[in-house]
User: Fold this.
Amino acid sequence: MNMPVKKSPVINPFGVISSSYYEQPLRLDLQTLRKRKSNKSKPPFSITKEFILRFNQTKNPKEKEELLDLARKNILRFKRKLGLSTLGTGKHVHLPTAWTEITYLAQCKGEIQDEALNMLYISMDHASFDYDHLPALFFLAESVLYRLCCDAFLKTYLYTVEIKLTKIGSLIFLRLFIYFLYGHLENFKQHLLRLQQYLYALSFSGDSYYKYPNIFSNVQIILKTMEIIYEREFLPGSFSSPVANEKQYENIDSDMEGYEINNLLWHCVAAWVCVQKKSPQLNKVLEHLIFHKTQLQTKCWIDSALALLVLAEAAKLNMACLKTLMDLMRDFLLSIMAVQNQKEKCEVDDFSWAWNIVYIYITILAETCLYAAISKLRKTAFVGFCDCRSSEKDILPLDKSEEQPELRNTSILGLLNYFSSKMSDNCDQVIWIGYYGIVYNLVKMSWELRGDEEQDGLRNLIWQTLQKIKDHEKDGRIRNAVNTAKAELNDPMDPFTSYSTKVSSNAGDEVFSKYIGWRIANALSKLFFPSTNAYVLPSKKPLIKRDGMKHLYKKQDCMKKRVVHFTVRKHPSVSELPMFPYPDFFTKGDEELTRIIDHHWQEELKIRQKEDVICEAKEREDKKLEEKNHFMEIMKRREEKLHKKTKPYELPPRIEVIALEKKMTSPN
Assistant:
């Protein structure tokens, strides 16, 4: 399947999708609404296919204004039903219904579409996890994939709606992945099969979105999460031949081997739990976490992305976690770049996926700069741990003739200096995508901080950095990052000169994810550290009658076998939970080897201490002997010159003193 390559970003409205896609009957049409309005009764607003078509096709100004007024009233109703001001909680909130209706409303062109998608993105960011949400989530997933594959790919230019759809899609599929870890997707295999054809088409989007890593990263999250789910729920290679495998899926046993959780992800969740509970075990957990840093280089990078996401939530509250997060990325980048340098010499592992980890890290680091709990954390995430910042030159050394800086830290400015110094036409993919991601997020950060007087210092520093990039950077890929960010923000003003203007009316629109990391960390902590008092995702509702309860219990037992590979024993309280998983054979072997090494190391330390004591004693004796010889030499020289054997600080004998006194007092 050949997809057209998009050429340049442009701000345009997105077309309405085919009405044949939604064949569910809707409640009310426009005429019914008018009748109820004429009867002076409060109309129960709803969006119909006829309303959407008339809204997009009408040319009558009066009718257009009337339809726009109806759409705005629905926007207000959906804001309340989505609970945008209460993080999706409250008696008036019903997320599945609101998600479905807002998806219909998002087909209306213009400002209504933009606001509907913004509301959907905010809700996907902060909504809690609930099993009852799954049917609506699959509906949203299918709607997003349909619009991307059957409409967006046919356009020559990049549309702002594509950016928003991929952002919403990445959040939807991250949520589905968490439900998958809980084992809640067993009863939704038909829904998964309906997504297969769209995922197969989406897998060919590389040529279209390669120039836009902000979009391509979201697409890769969608594809990678579903690849893992399909491999566990159905068969490996589900995207390769959807038609050929369709019949084989019917005979697949649902009791399959569970998904093995990455140790790095486990320890990141443990660190987040320690920060939340202010546990003194945090330092030990972080030490174990660093021990598993090489798992960040695994090809199955979704676990690594979730680990960074969870650890970043802990880093927003704790400086030690922030340092660990930055050290992880520093080791990862140095390892990846070392491997890239060895490509020409010998065969090495393929790290073509590594840019996903780098881009995700830059995004969550930008969120840390904006939303960390205290200013010191925000400053450290942006500047780094080095306090020796001085001149404007440190902001961005773009002089390629100078010596290229080393990767001292992985803060925003540290990565900016490192990536910008290595930019070239033939540079590695990680370099230019990392540079692109920093510039792209800097533009969004500057827009997010407009009107915030408390963070004038950070905003000014971002502005200076962007100004220097604008003046010196000639690479088209990096300039494209600025244009794409402006298009996503729907801001026609130049981000370098728009600080004197007032904040626009849609300044409340979220451009970063504020809560999804916290929601995922909370859900994973209750999966990895269950207890009698902890709240977990609601159990599945039975899909059969009460007379089939035995079969239901059997299916639930199968579900329990396939969730994750590690188990946590039941404890009377959360405080007694261990901070490390139950060790397997290899882990025990590693621990035994560690103990042996520690024993020999302690013996070696004792030997070295004894040798140091002997050396110090010998040095003291040598020093005393040297001082004695020096004194003897001084006395010898004194005797030769003064013909006296007394020491310089000694008085003459008492007899000589008495004789001298008599001589001085005699009359002669």
Q: What stands out?
A: The mean pLDDT is 77. The CA atoms of residues 8 and 595 lie 59 Å apart. The two ends are 134 Å apart (CA to CA).
